[in-house]
Amino acid sequence: MIGLIIVAVVILILIFSSVKIVTTGNVLVVERLGQFHKVFEPGWHFMIPFIDFVRKRVSTKQQIIDIPPQNVITKDNVNISIDNVIFYKVVNARDAVYNIENYMEGIRYATITNMRNIVGEMTLDEVLSGRDRINSKLLSIVDEITDAYGIKLLSVEIKNILPPKEIQEAMEKQMKAERNKRATILEAEGAKQSEIAKAEGIKQSKILQAEAEKEANIRKAEGAREAQLLEAQGKAAAIEEVAKAQAEAINKVNKAIIESGTNETVIALKQIEALQEMAKNPANKLILPNETLSSLGSISAIAETLKGNK
Questions:
Q1: How far apart are CA 152 and CA 154, in angstroms?
Q2: Domain Band: where (predicted)?
Q3: Disulfide: which of 126, 220, 223, 239 matches 122 by Cβ 3.0-4.6 Å?
Q4: Class assignment of domain 63-163?
Q5: Domain locations along the chain
Q6: 42, 46, 48, 51: CA torsion to nearest 10
Q7: Would the pLDDT of 213 be above 70?
């Protein structure tokens, strides 16, 4: 009875030990009789006791390798210090286990070696201004190397580039001088813009003043012209009224003479006298019909005769 219990317990232990649960983000590399057998993905799996063994648990999550500062010599023989951060993930657990002893060390050494080669082909100025170029080139080269390890490089980032102390001091002085230069330029530009704005304001003020004076002169001239026109119209109207009054007076005299039967010679003389009176006033304008002008000669002769008779 005790033997059966022992056998049952052993069987249960073997059953439970043969069950493997793989969590998300991990895989198991399993060997059977010392040779690669299978990669267990996340989930439940069964193994044959004493025949199947887990060689290694491998994480398939994104991982980080922080590479400490490395001394690198540039093309122009400047010794600088560079440190990197590498982001990667395992995409083939079998290759990561069987193709290299330690894939993390393989990534680290491949990155350091190729970074020195890349920086050695660049001057200090090119290195300082070419971080993206270095990152891109380094990622391409190292990713190709680690592909055989079942590793996929996601990103390579340079954290710091530190030149020698004396170069850093010179760079700081140059940056300070550049900042002062920019500040001076900005100050001068501000003063320039202020003067331009001030001059523009004065210009606009003068333009507005000139336009106002021009408008005033135009209105003044128009007022004077209107006044002269009204004055001339008034004078013309006055002359016209005087002429009408004188014409009416002559007509009345003529009518009275005709009605009284006075001699035509006397009438002619009266007309001449009336014309003489009208001509004395320089403001009067005489308008005579052609018949009157043609008869002036005969009237003058008659007048002389009458004066002689007197």
A1: 6
A2: 17-175
A3: 126
A4: alpha beta
A5: 2-59, 63-163, 165-239, 240-309
A6: 0
A7: yes
Read out DSSP for 180-217?
HHHHHHHHHHHHHHHHHHHHHHHHHHHHHHHHHHHHHH
Q: Report the distance separating Cα 116 and Cα 74, nearest Å.
A: 8
- CA pair distance 234, 291, nearest whole angstrom: 31
Other beta carbons within 10 angstroms of residue 66's beta carbon come to 10
Token pair recorded at residue 215: 């408008």
256-274 tens-digit pLDDT: 656 655 555 555 666 666 6
Residue 152 identity (one-letter amino acid): K
Amino acid, res. 134: I
Q: What are 37-43's contacts with CB under 8 Å, separation 24+? A: 39/93, 39/94
**Model's pTM, two decimal places?**
0.53
In the numeric block, the tokens 């083939």 are attached to: 92
Cα–Cα distance list, 299 to 24, 273, 290, 305 (Å): 145, 11, 14, 10
Count how many residues are written for the chain: 310
Q: Is 33 left (phi over 0), alpha (psi -120 to 50) or beta?
A: left
